[in-house]
Design brief:
Elements lengths: L7 E4 L15 H12 L3 E4 L8 H4 L10 E3 L4 E4 L2 E5 L4 H11 L5 E7 L2 E6 L2 H7 L1 H6 L18 E9 L5 E3 L2 H14 L3 E3 L6 E6 L4 H12 L6 E5 L5 H6 L2 E4 L5 H6 L2 E2 L7 H10 L8
Parallel strand pairs: 1-2, 1-12, 12-13, 13-14
Antiparallel strand pairs: 3-4, 4-5, 6-7, 6-8, 8-9, 8-11, 10-11
Helix pairs in contact: 1-10, 3-6
Length: 289
């Protein structure tokens, strides 16, 4: 039976499009995305990163993220047009900071456009869990937290560090990170929290995630889920893996993401997603297992 033509390709960024240790998506991967666009396929990232952080990740190549699901579904764009966006007020984040305060070395950040602001917690704990955000983070002059934001945040995260045996800070382990995520989901109404990586969670409007963002794009394009392919590697990709039949895990995916995916390819380090996108752009089906 002939396969439905693929009309939309979306891929997670970190450790999927973007191999570990690199600062930007490799040129060959961006070239593959352009070949897909030339073949009439919408292609872009489905990421926990905020929209305002995408330009440097794609080396200024805005065509690669004109269509995207950002901030885990809180921001959705189609051909540069905003389809939806959730914002978080200081009041909405107040309960988040209270729950986070129950966990040593935890804190909250909120983004004003591309600039993260330290809402609660310690900057060194953030540095241990997400160095790039810590480097750009706004604090008080003495380096302490700013408190609840007086702006409508486009993105928010909760971080959790831990001390190692030698006293050095590192991201909290999976068990403690999942315990914090569970406490947040149980203790904060109107918001959802996921587990993308140790020591870090994304804040989302309740019921919004990568899957609902992708489905919103599919509705705008007038296509079915069988005309979509998604790539990912971690816990915040599970919703789109469940919603989209042609879900693809890279070889370096977490066990739960690999188990949830329908198809499997090589590792991010070998730009395996680029190879798959090139095949799809050529009208070929690259997945066998």
């Amino acid at each position: 039976m002939a396969r439905q033509k693929i009309r939309l390709i979306l891929a997670d960024i970190d450790r999927t499009l973007l191999p570990w240790g690199l600062d930007a998506v490799p040129p060959r991967t961006r070239a593959a995305m352009h070949h897909a666009m030339e073949a009439g396929i919408h292609v872009g990232p489905a990421t926990g990163r905020g929209f305002d952080w995408l330009e440097p990740l794609f080396s200024g190549d805005a065509e690669c993220f004109r269509t995207c699901v950002a901030t885990n579904g809180n921001q959705v764009f189609l051909d540069g047009r905003k389809i939806r966006e959730a914002n978080f007020s200081g009041g909405a984040l107040a309960k988040v900071t209270k729950v986070a305060a129950r966990f040593p070395h935890a804190g909250v950040i909120a983004f004003d456009g591309a600039t993260p602001s330290l809402v609660s917690g310690d900057l060194e704990d953030l540095r241990a869990t997400f160095p790039a955000y810590a480097a750009a983070c706004r604090t008080r002059p003495d380096g302490t937290a700013m408190g609840l934001p007086d702006f409508a945040a486009t993105k928010a995260n909760v971080f959790l560090a831990q001390e190692s045996a030698d006293g050095a800070l590192a991201p909290a382990g999976e068990k403690d990170s999942r315990a914090m995520v569970e406490a947040l989901n149980q203790g904060v109404d109107g918001l959802d929290f996921d587990y993308p990586q140790p020591g870090f969670t994304n804040v989302m409007r309740a019921g919004w995630n990568k899957a609902t963002g992708i489905l919103a794009l599919a509705r705008e394009l007038g296509i079915g889920t069988d005309e979509v392919v998604v790539f990912g590697d971690a816990g915040n990709d599970l919703s789109m893996f469940e919603a989209i039949p042609n879900s693809v895990a890279v070889e370096n995916a977490t066990p739960e993401a690999a188990a949830a995916a329908r198809w499997h390819i090589g590792p991010s380090s070998k730009e395996s997603v680029a190879d798959a996108i090139e095949s799809l752009a050529a009208g070929e089906w690259p997945f066998t297992a």
